[in-house]
Amino acid sequence: MSAPPVVLVLVGGGPRAAGLVERLAVNAPELFPGAALDVHVVDPHPPGAGRVWRYEQSELLRMNSMAVDVTMFTDASVVCDGPVRPGPSLAEWAGLVTSGGLSGVDLPADVLAELDRLEPTTFPSRRLQSAYLAWFFRDAVEALPPGITVHQHRTSVRRITGSPQGRQRVWLADRSTPLVADAVVLTLGHLDAEIGAEERELVDYASANGLAYLPPDYSADSDLSSVREGADVVLRGFGLAFIDLMVLLTQGRGGRFEESADGLRYVPSGREPRIHVGSRRGVPYHSKTGYRLQGDPLPLPRFFDGQVVDELLASPVEFDFQADVWPLLAKEIAWGYFHELFTGHPERVALPWNEFAAEFAGLPWYSTGMAALVESSVPLVEDRIDFERLDRPLAGLVFATGEEFQEHLRAYVEADVARRSDPAFSADLGAFMALLSVYGQLPRVLNSPKLSPASRLAHADGWWGGFFSFLASGPPPDRLEELLALSRAGIVNFLGADVWVRAEDGAFVAGSASSPDVVRATGLVEARLPAHSLGRTADPVLRALRGAGDVVEEKLSDGRSTGLVRVSPEDNRLIERNGTAHPRRFALGPFTTGRAFAAFARPGTNAPGFRQNDGVARALLRLLAAEGSGNAESVA
């Protein structure tokens, strides 16, 4: 009699789960040959796409990456123990579909129409990305060796029970009997959170005064019906969530953009609110670049590689992110920037790259010697990278009137779009590539007990995370052109930097440090995602595990919590209340201390998420192979 199959349950079926299935497929022949394995994928949303990338959302919402820069496949850059399995990027997949190179791909009419006009440098709709992710999931399932079967459950998980020594019981929302599993992986993606005390007060205040208040939420799921047409509404936050909300509250309500002799023009429908937007910086995220590198290839990282991190972690004393880590990151980002400037645009520099690089490498960032080198080698101020100016472009600027500030910010956004659309400034893309290269090294630093707790919370999790997103995760350039058109049409009003909002006199009152104008509004929308926090999670699985002591928050040495779910650094096993790693439970995603946020990546970047998927898949297969051997012995 053959042994019964061992069972793996994936709680969550989005891109991270799809990537894990693909890694199971390529590693199984080595680690679990002749596998008898049932894989159950549980998610109420479509497999592959999951909640965030599902087709059923507004056709107006788009990605902030070009089609050529999106892949779910490993390539030669990925450093992992399992086999590399190359495959098409989103742009290449689109070309295969339209040319008939892929069979059995059934797509909705609007996605097919978008594929026909897609270019590699297009920023696709999320619906198109949904189709790519759904295809990748099916492709990963088809790549599984004989004996591994995938079962899909379009429901949610309520709780997980079972001792570390025995099989796990995974309780689903739509059935009374559990799935019995040998291993479970939480691949949950972005999570909702219970609102905090301050947000609860604002909810109650809005209810008592007939106002609209929306706490942090995933924008595609926000109920915007309470934001009335013609009303003044404050959007607190100027990142990607704001861009989505801006689109949904304007085009989503029937307005349209059209070209005119003076540039892009917005034609209102009359159903829009008047949007007042502000944030700490007071400016939108930088536009994504619309060009490719012009200079020579550059291996990265150079100044923040594994050896440098080893030396940093070997320090006998506590270290500080701002004082000890940021200078290394800044030097790496500047290295990528200047390399592209010198090799892509040699007519704008005063030294050959090899001479500049030799001196640059020996200088700390940002020393007097470094400043002198840059000033003497890069004649134009606009060609010198200035992190402080990039980070706080409105610092120290105060305008006499609100209209003066509107004109200034429109000029700032216009200049940003022009720079990010002009290959003459491709050095900005060099900085971006260097920024990506350091990200893979950071989890080891951020999880080190030697990192000062105060610096971890304020600088690493606080300032650095925001700066990275501001610099690297901005919208497509045409979204900022639409923002300008909405500003000129009087639909969007810029509040400024260090924005403040008060609930008083039956309204929401808002202003900033940038101008004297104060706005009185009947609505307030928190234009940001909920912060990940185990203590406030709305996810039923994590809540149940937390209540049982089967998951714990990361605690720093001073007792403060980061809100992240603790997992073992070696293989992402869940850490329990007693400090031990559960042998049968794993977790992947931004809610964990594993910190590999992106489930898909830009090709050729040795993506941390891909490396993590491979490591967890191999740990799972070793565990399940041992379980399978035990089952075979018991049957025999």
Characterise this structure:
By secondary structure, the protein is of the alpha/beta class. The protein folds into three domains: 6-58 and 68-83 and 126-192 and 533-635, FAD/NAD(P)-binding domain, CATH 3.50.50; 197-285 and 476-526, 3-Layer(bba) Sandwich (FAD/NAD(P)-binding domain), CATH 3.50.50.60; 306-393 and 403-471, no CATH class. It is 37% helix and 15% strand. It is built from 18 helices and 21 strands. The strands form six sheets. It has a six-stranded mixed beta sheet with strand order 3-2-1-7-21-20. Strands 8-17-9-12-13 form a five-stranded parallel beta sheet. It has a three-stranded antiparallel beta sheet with strand order 4-5-6. Helix 1 crosses helix 18. The longest helix has 28 residues, at 608-635. The radius of gyration is 25 Å and the shape is globular.
CATH homologous superfamily name of the largest domain? FAD/NAD(P)-binding domain
If you compute it from the alpha carbons, what radius of gyration comes out, rounded to the nearest whole angstrom?
25 Å
Low-confidence stretches: none
Strand content: 15-25%
CATH class of the largest domain: Alpha Beta
- Helical content class: 25-40%
Shape: globular
Strand order of the largest sheet: 3-2-1-7-21-20
**What is the end-to-end distance?**
7 Å
Structural class: alpha/beta
Count of DSSP-assigned helices: 18
Please tell me the CATH architecture of the largest domain by its name: 3-Layer(bba) Sandwich
Protein name: FAD/NAD(P)-binding protein
Domain FAD-dependent urate hydroxylase HpyO/Asp monooxygenase CreE-like FAD/NAD(P)-binding: 9-190
InterPro entries: HpyO/CreE_NAD-binding, L-asp_N-monooxygenase_NS-form
Organism: Umezawaea endophytica
